[in-house]
Amino acid sequence: MTTATTRRDERRISPVFLGILAVTAVTGWATWTGFAAQPGVAVFLFVTAAWIVSLCLHEYAHARTALHSGDITVGSKGYLSLNPLAYTHALLSIVLPVIFVIMGGIGLPGGAVFIERGRIRGRWRHSLVSAAGPLTNVLFAAVCTAPFWLDALDGVPADFRFALAFLALLQVTAAILNFLPVPGLDGYGVLEPWLSYNVKRQVEPFAPFGLLFVFALLWVPAVNNVFFDVVDAALRGLDISDLDTYCGQNLYRFWQNTDQFCAVSP
Does the predicted model carry a pTM greater than 0.85? Predict the structure, then answer.
């Protein structure tokens, strides 16, 4: 790794991120205590804010790894401040993923930080820069699911448990989608340094459409079933049941008719 050089102000955490973090904490407390008159509203705000925090950390991981790999320009671009407004495509990386969560309960991967790859030397470093983002989603999922696989759910309110389960679902889907070896996604970025120049040149024109291609495939019932079978298997491995994720999404979408079973489940 090269020595990272940035000014102190370039690494200062953005007030925007701190505000999102504060919303996460307050709405998490409201979900835990049942303070909100309508639990679904608290769950919605908590999961949405926590999801945005994870998106910021995903992009920060890319930028921080790139910094230590040789791209010292990431600081001046604002990528180390965790400010989502500094991203290259804030719409694609923040707004669109939130819309997808609201509409379909799936963690949409976003690529927002522009890394100057020419400053980075070594194929392993390039691969690590690409892998850093989805690995952050994996870590976030591990934190969300810790009460489940540590068998530490005693005393955890049902609504908070359901919210954590749904948030874990988003992190798992984001990690799996990001790691797909499709041009434009991080999984391809991990493999790209090891491909021949001719292969990379032939694949490059398709990179802007990689994510669209993936979501088009997910509309195919057979592909969709396989994808969510993998997601469900990963969540079961983390001791999260289908009931937990179902009730989490049900509470999150509070504007629909809430399943009373989830509302009264212990």
Answer: yes
